[in-house]
Amino acid sequence: MLRDDQLRVFWISRIDYEKNSGVKKHYHSDIFQLLFIMDGEGVIEINGQEYPLMPKYAYFISKENEHHFYFKKPSSTIDIKFDIISSDLEELIKTQKIQIPYFMSDSSKIKELFKTSIHNKQNDKLTPYLVDVLFKNILLLLVQETQEIQNSSHDSAPAMLQRNTNDFPIQKFLIENLHQKISLDDISKHFNYHPHYIIDLFKQKLNTTPMKYLQLLRIEKAKEFLEFSNLSISEIADKIGLSTPYFSRLFHSMEGTSPTDYRDQTRTVVGKPIILDENFISSLPKQPPISNQK
């Protein structure tokens, strides 16, 4: 089997936790773990140090680190267990000490990692290698940005968010106001440009019209909510500035399926670990089950 020679991902799982549920204290002697919180709220303790569990934050857990966690409300996570084969890479990780918790302003990479891993259910021989490489990229990014944070006097979250600035203000305006009902006239008044000029700008820069671009943004955001949240269809519609009936029609016209069916298709793997190395299961000490007690 083709695998990366520096890092190997053994196990990925999308796990939803109910309120007041979690995992009791335990440790792994021979693997690392990264716990990413998609939504929800709770508390995790790693080696006696307590941290809040918050959306868009990742929690790096080294070998031998005792840890346990619980959630104060319904929460969704992506849990990754892996090993670092390269001694040089492992030394780098130990030396840099990835910040805990680590704010991931752009969570698309870790979600893409999970979606890629799903192909392993189809016994795709290339998938484990792709997952290794994608995750190594994420891990090195955490190391690099932790180093930048340590060398900077700025707060970590604002510093990272500033990297997402865009040189096309109208595009940025649409991204930041998906939850609003926006018309071409609204954009025109906000920027004091003629509607025809705005249309020409979008065609030059993005090869589409502003309203078509807004539709694409909304549907992509809706797909993310459907894949990685427990929001209802009406709540998702509200979050992207559309009525529920119009959202359902638009989604079907663009994706060829209903929002509900799309969610059902993506949820077939929720709570089911994706095993990338069959030898991992027999060598993994049994992790405590999800518990309804702290």
From TrEMBL:
List the PROSITE patterns hit by this protein, alphabetically: HTH_ARAC_FAMILY_2 (PS01124)
Q: Name one GO molecular function term.
A: sequence-specific DNA binding
UniProt keywords (A-Z) are: DNA-binding, Transcription, Transcription regulation
Cross-referenced Gene3D superfamilies: Homeodomain-like, Jelly Rolls
Originating organism: Lentibacillus persicus
**Which Pfam family, just one, is annotated for this protein?**
HTH_18
> Which protein is depicted?
Cupin domain-containing protein
> Carries keyword Transport?
no
Tell me where in this chain the HTH araC/xylS-type domain is found.
168-265
Kindly give the InterPro entries that the UniProt entry links to this protein.
Cupin_2, Homeodomain-like_sf, HTH_AraC, RmlC-like_jellyroll, RmlC_Cupin_sf
